[in-house]
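Quick one, tokens below:
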């Protein structure tokens, strides 16, 4: 017995493949946003590939329990929902800047920042998956 009780079990290779597919779907949504008239945030939140990816993440996360993939499914689901939140905030800030005529030249910045954050999240997660590593859970303020 070389494994300690706290060490994660090895995931099924099929589940690893599914996780790659999910990251690929999110990456496709980002690519759609980068190469089209849509924004990265808009494509990530509203495009079919990303919606399919988040549904698959919810369906597959139970199978990932106790493996390093568990952190990836948490990462993927949180990335989607935080994209919805930050995207909504970015749109409100952008509209406020445009309507006040103060920031017409910089009104695109909030959406750009969220788009770059999304690219980072998809790339970091997928690279960690490629290396067979879990994504570290950073402690939140007040979390034991």
């Amino acid at each position: 017995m070389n494994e300690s009780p706290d060490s994660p079990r090895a995931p099924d290779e099929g589940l690893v493949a599914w996780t790659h597919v999910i990251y690929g779907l999110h990456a496709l949504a980002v690519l759609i946003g980068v190469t089209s008239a849509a924004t990265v945030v808009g494509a990530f939140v509203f495009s079919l590939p990303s919606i399919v990816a988040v549904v698959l993440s919810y369906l597959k996360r139970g199978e990932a329990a106790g493996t390093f993939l568990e952190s990836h499914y948490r990462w993927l689901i949180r990335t989607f929902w935080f994209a919805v939140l930050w995207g909504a905030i970015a749109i409100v800030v952008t509209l406020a800047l445009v309507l006040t005529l103060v920031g017409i030249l910089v009104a695109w910045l909030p959406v750009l920042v969220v788009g770059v954050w999304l690219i980072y999240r998809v790339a970091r997660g997928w690279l960690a998956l490629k290396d067979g590593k879990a994504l570290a859970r950073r402690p939140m303020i007040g979390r034991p």
